[in-house]
Design goal:
6-stranded parallel beta sheet; about 25% helix; two-stranded antiparallel ribbon; 14 strands; alpha/beta
Length: about 325
């Protein structure tokens, strides 16, 4: 929840004040913005809660009240936590939930505000940080300023983030590496141009090779996110994505395959009846390499998807 106070926000070139006057009611729920609630037999939906224009107005979270000594993350030695650096993303990917949560708005915290939180975490003994954002590299100037400030103030941290391959450049990635970034999670999704176009991903797959190359040169490890089952997906397009992923030279340091594959519900619908999704076609399996099974498409069920996702991320040997 953001705020129930009147907020100044911009709509185009105009500044608008969102006012939500309190109404007399026996139920306090009536005066809470963004709330859907039941009033007897009636479902009441209050006005939307306006966005906070300046994220720096939010106080730094009380991290010390969390069990920081118990928080762990694979591939990270010792405790870690994450901080929110921005909210929103300008990209138009059709499968993403950010359009529901933040529409098309993008707001970033100032570099000074973020570094203040990093220094605060350092005093608590936390030096492993994930920069949590819908798109960390959404604003180049902001990322550059943040990295330079981390270096200037001597903040010793190791951090990770996410990005799109079309929102980075060589200079930015080199500066990120110098500021302590050691891993980037990239949203690749698919290698098929038609699948990318229908998902409104908005980048060309050739851009991925450049971004990953620049990251490796900066000493940053690469992690790839892929989605199987987007509109227009076929068995051939999945195989195309698998072949493409092998050529991307993902970081080989990891004991498990550095790929994360999501299979949305459309994967389980037969294209014979719905015109979309992937229809079963006999006993076939998709492998990243000889050790890691990703998906057995002969049984397109939620149970099977979950089983093979666990097998890909942990138990790589195929079932006997």
């Amino acid at each position: 929840m953001e705020t129930s106070k009147p907020q100044h926000r911009r709509v185009g070139a105009q500044e608008v004040i969102d006012a939500f006057p309190a109404v007399e009611s026996e139920d306090p729920c009536a005066n809470i913005l963004g709330l859907a609630w039941r009033n007897g037999d009636e479902i009441v939906i209050n006005p939307d809660r306006p966005f906070i224009p300046n994220l720096d107005d939010l106080p730094i979270p009380l991290h010390e009240r969390l069990p920081l000594d118990k928080q762990r993350m694979p591939m990270i030695k010792g405790p870690f936590t994450f901080i929110v650096t921005s909210r929103g993303c300008p990209a138009g990917c059709k499968y993403c939930i950010k359009h529901v949560s933040y529409q098309n708005s993008v707001r970033v915290r100032s570099a000074e505000n973020i570094v203040d939180e990093l220094e605060y975490l350092g005093k608590l003994g936390i030096t492993n940080i994930h920069m949590y954002a819908d798109l960390f590299t959404v604003n180049r100037e902001h990322v550059v300023e943040l990295c330079r400030l981390i270096i200037a103030r001597g903040v010793k941290i190791r951090w990770t983030c996410n990005s799109r391959v079309d929102y980075v450049d060589e200079e930015m990635l080199r500066l990120m590496g110098q500021a302590g970034c050691w891993l980037i999670s990239w949203g690749i999704e698919s290698a098929n141009e038609m699948v990318l176009k229908r998902a409104r991903k908005g980048y060309k797959k050739e851009q991925a090779f450049k971004a990953l190359k620049w990251a490796r040169a900066a000493g940053i490890k690469n992690w790839g996110y892929f989605i199987i089952g987007l509109p227009g997906e076929t068995e051939a397009s999945i195989q195309e994505t698998m072949a493409y992923s092998k050529n991307c030279r993902w970081t080989s340091h990891f004991s498990t395959s550095p790929l994360r594959i999501q299979a949305p519900p459309s994967f389980t619908r037969s294209s014979r009846t719905t015109g979309s999704g992937l229809a079963p076609s006999g006993k076939r399996s998709i492998w990243i390499n000889r050790r890691c099974l990703i998906m057995e498409i002969s049984v397109p069920s939620a149970w099977n998807i979950g089983r093979n996702a666990r097998r890909a991320s942990g138990r790589c040997a195929p079932a006997r």
